Amino acid sequence: MDSTSTSSSSTRSTSSSARPEPRLWTAYRELAATTVRTDLTHAFHPGQPHYPGFPDEQRAATFDMDQGDPFTTHRYSLVGQWGTHVDPPSHFVPGARTLDRIPVTEMILPLVVLDITERVADDPDAVPTLDDIATWEARNGRVPHGSFVALRTGWGRRWPDPVAMANRDAAGVSHTPGWSGEVLRHLIEEAGVTAVGHEQTDTDPGTATSAGDLSLERYILGRDRWQIELLGNLHLVPEAGALVVATWPKPEGGSGFPARVFALHQPDAD
In this predicted model, what pLDDT tens digit does every residue of 4-35 receive, in sequence order? Predict the structure, then answer.
């Protein structure tokens, strides 16, 4: 009996060791060993910068171990567009795709970073131009079809100071960078990107939003694209070669929600 048991165990062990590792597990181990994961998400909290028309977040402990409860849970009251968040097409377009209708195939994409940080340092109203795309493509090749394009402005370093983020003048006009129509039209109509993202509160520059003009955000969402607002740490990722992973909860019919976004990139990339 003992001999049979030992022999059977030995056979199973040999069979197991000879079985090749699943390819995805091998790929994961190689990826983990050769890439950096950079969190592009701000932790949200009451009192943070947000669209002026939105109420502040309210948070309360429904159970609290510090009060003798067996576990801790919190109740959160906040608008969907809170902190680093996703805007689906339905945010601006009736009947368009809601959060639950965006497939997981769109949640891991090549990451393209357009950097206008130096111009923004001199002019907070700066926006990207077609020359910025041409310069990027001269260094890296064509913007990949189906990619996620992030606008790096340096604005994320102002988080979580509401005054610094809004950067209003004496007349109350906000001076913040944003996208430009020509660049967004090129990225969507010519390059065929899947989504865009940025560090500031809005898609449109502050001078436009101060006048109630949200036309660039309306354009993006109206073309069945989604976007991530209030990204952080874009200065830590390369302009090309990285992947972005953007995920969020799945509320049925959801028009926006805080997102968790991170990049995978080579540790020696600039």
Answer: 444 455 555 555 568 899 999 999 999 999 99
- The mean of the pLDDT values for the chain is 94
Cβ(93)–Cβ(106) under 8 Å?
Answer: no
Widest Cα–Cα separation across the chain: 91
CB 110 within 8 A of CB 243: yes
DSSP sequence for 87-99: E-GGGTSTTS--G
Question: 233: alpha, beta or left, given left = phi > 0 and alpha = psi -120 to 50?
Answer: left
Strand 226-229 vs strand 195-198: parallel, antiparallel, or unpaired?
parallel
Give the pair of three-digit tokens for residue 1. Answer: 């009996």
User: What are the distances in angstroms from CA 240 to CA 46, 64, 261, 268?
Assistant: 34, 45, 17, 13
Task: Give the pLDDT score at 28.
Answer: 95
245, two tokens: 């992973």
What is the Cα gyration radius of the chain? 23
**In a 10 Å sphere around its CB, with 0-12 CB exposed, 13-18 middle and 19+ buried, how is residue 17 labelled?**
exposed
How does strand 226-229 pair with strand 148-152?
unpaired
Q: Are 38 and 233 in contact (CB under 8 A)?
A: yes
